[in-house]
Design a protein that fits this description.
Layout: E1 12-15, H1 18-23, E2 26-31, H2 41-56, E3 61-66, H3 71-82, E4 86-92, H4 102-109, E5 112-117, H5 119-122, H6 128-137, E6 142-143, H7 151-168, E7 174-179, H8 183-190, E8 195-199, H9 207-213, E9 224-227, H10 240-253, H11 262-274, E10 283-288
Parallel strand pairs: 2-10, 3-4, 3-6, 4-5, 7-8, 7-10, 8-9
Antiparallel strand pairs: 1-2
Bound molecules: pyridoxal-5'-phosphate.
Pyridoxal-5'-phosphate binds near residues 72, 179, 261 and 290.
Length: about 300
């Protein structure tokens, strides 16, 4: 696997459907799921400058955070291993120590060391004093925050906006993207895009300030529209309505979504198109952020 040789630019494909015709909107899908066979989608974009920085500053070890099903841990384990770093993953939930998920098993195969912490301790993952302690204890690893969501992460995501602008020959009116930590949405905003973010978690209202806090330029804050009602019961929860939607999406467009992020975003986007959210003539680029390692099997 070669993290440094992704398939770029990722394809931009136009989707045709009666509901788009009726609403007179142009919908494209940005196939970030095809960026790399293992380190897919927004995780590749967010890791790029983090890992280049770690290389440039001659770091030995990378430390990062995630849940037991985290696409970010999966991506960091693989990319870190391929680039010759040691990696440590701090995993939310001590109960997984004796009960590896397929994601954690993959991380171990990629030589990631796993440290299981309580949900309570995990809450401190972004606190400076906690991180200071952790770094002291673990011989000063290079820190990548949960989800790869950092300033360097945003810089990588911003490149997707430039790339899309070149493919379309003009910037789209909107990008639509699923949100977990909100780093991808913030990265798109940081490049001057208008962003529709669809929370994959319940109670995602906090994402509004989290995303805005990641932005350096305050004028970009107003370009975010956050949708919080398409969570389907919460993070990594779903029902047959969502899986039926995934199946029909696959049939109609020949594109596989997954149930944690991308299916919820497309479901929400289609619902908003049908409800008349968009002016006639609008162009929307919906980002397939990848994550197919977590596909329901
Ligand atoms: C991690 C992930 C997201 C969420 O990205 P954030 O930057 O954390 O909001 C969306 N889609 C997929 C497929 C992911 O793996």
């Amino acid at each position: 696997m070669d993290f440094l040789h992704p398939s770029l630019p990722t394809p931009l494909q136009k989707l045709s459907d009666q509901i788009f015709e009726k609403a007179q909107v142009n919908v494209y899908i940005k196939r970030e799921d095809l960026i790399h066979p293992i380190v897919s989608g927004n995780k590749w974009r967010k890791l790029k400058y983090n890992l280049l920085e770690a290389k440039a500053t001659e770091q030995k070890t990378i430390l990062t955070f995630g849940g037991a099903y985290s696409n970010h841990l999966y991506a960091t384990a693989a990319a870190g291993n391929a680039m010759g770093f040691e990696t440590i993953g701090v995993v939310r939930g001590v109960e997984f120590a004796e009960n590896d998920t397929p994601t954690l098993q993959f991380c171990r195969e990629q030589n990631m060391k796993l440290q299981f912490v309580s949900r309570e301790e995990y809450k401190h993952r972004n606190s400076l004093s906690y991180l200071y302690e952790l770094v002291q204890k673990l011989e000063h690893p290079f820190l990548i925050p949960e989800g790869g969501t950092s300033e360097l992460g945003l810089k990588g995501v911003a490149e997707m906006v430039t790339e899309t602008g070149e493919q379309l020959e003009s910037p789209p009116d909107f990008f639509a993207v699923a949100a977990g930590t909100g780093g991808t949405a913030a990265g798109l905003l940081s490049a001057g895009a208008n962003v529709l973010a669809f929370s994959a978690l319940k109670g995602g209202e906090f994402l509004e300030t989290d995303i805005q806090d990641l932005l350096v330029h305050s004028e970009q804050k107003g370009n975010l529209k956050l949708f919080t009602e398409y969570h389907f019961g919460g993070y990594a929860k779903w029902n047959t309505e969502l899986t039926d939607f995934m199946d029909s999406f696959k049939n109609r467009f020949d594109v596989q979504l997954e149930q944690v992020y991308t299916a919820k975003m497309f479901y929400g986007l289609f619902d908003q198109i049908e409800k008349g959210y968009f002016k006639a003539g609008s162009t929307i680029v919906a980002v397939h952020t990848g994550g197919l390692q977590g596909l329901l099997k």
